[in-house]
Amino acid sequence: MTYTCAACGQSAEDYVPECPGCGAHGTLRRLANLLASRPRSTFLTGPAAEPKRISVGLETLDRAFGRNSDGTSGLVLGAVYLLHGGPGAGKSTLALHIGRALGRAGLLVLGVSTEADEGMVLALHQRTSPTTGQSDLPVRYLFSRSLLDVLAELEETGAEALVVDQLHSLMGSPKRNLAELVAACKVRGATLVCVAERNGAGTIRGERAIEHMDDCTVALDRSWAGREDESAAAVAQTITPLEVERRIVSTSKNRWGPDGRWSLRLGATGWDEMPAVPTPAAPTPPAPPPANDLN
Ligand SMILES: Nc1ncnc2c1ncn2[C@@H]1O[C@H](COP(=O)(O)OP(=O)(O)OP(=O)(O)O)[C@@H](O)[C@H]1O
Ligand SMILES: [Mg+2]
Fold first, then answer.
1. Percent of the chain with pLDDT over 70
2. Substitution candidate for ligand 1 out of 94, 127, 222, 244 with most atoms within 8 A of CB
């Protein structure tokens, strides 16, 4: 009787627990069984199913995430989003904003805070959700730096969305932690929004592989980036208060929408649309010359 390894294809005359080819454990199967149960190729017929989207309550950000043919725009359910930006760019505020929007849309959301404590999260929620009052944060919160705690809580609660702030302060390797979070979310169809630290070059800190694991990378930048050496007060004297609040939100490697750059505003009450700058009135055209009575 011939056995074949389902992992590497190595054959063996007799069953052995460990594949003699790749050393994998328990992968030897009878060839006939392997062939009968293998996945089959097929021709693909259209149209492609479009993803399910949820609005995050900011039209510009919804557009940045992408739009379906019926006009629905927003965050794609089941997708993985990585948010990065410099210190104070607004990552935590945006992660909370998105988690809260998903919770208000009826999803069971699990927020993981690796740095801020309960008081800080609640204070941020209340400051950025002034109209809805005190305690209606529709997100379960876990305060831990342990990946195991996060995975266990995800399993236990059956959360449909996971918002992690932030990846780089979970214990262990950020790359491995993200791989585990992505795998756990993909298996259950949960959406993952994960804040990541940025390095000096403006990309996500750590191995480049991290940026290959998401479905959309979202970068947050101040419009006055490049002036980090100057104090905020000095910068504020040279630009309008609105420019101080402007954040450039860039999407890249977006699987479900465009790559692009959008302007949003991060003020004391959180994220908001950037008001349109009124265009200066066109100069009044000179009055036509008086009609010539002689014509
Ligand atoms: N109490 C406050 N009142 C008004 N605005 C505040 C207050 N606290 C913070 N902010 C604003 O929010 C911004 C910081 O937002 P947030 O904490 O989301 O940034 P972050 O990118 O997560 O920062 P970090 O890199 O420290 O984690 C600040 O730059 C500031 O503009
Ligand atoms: Mg933060």
1. 94
2. 127
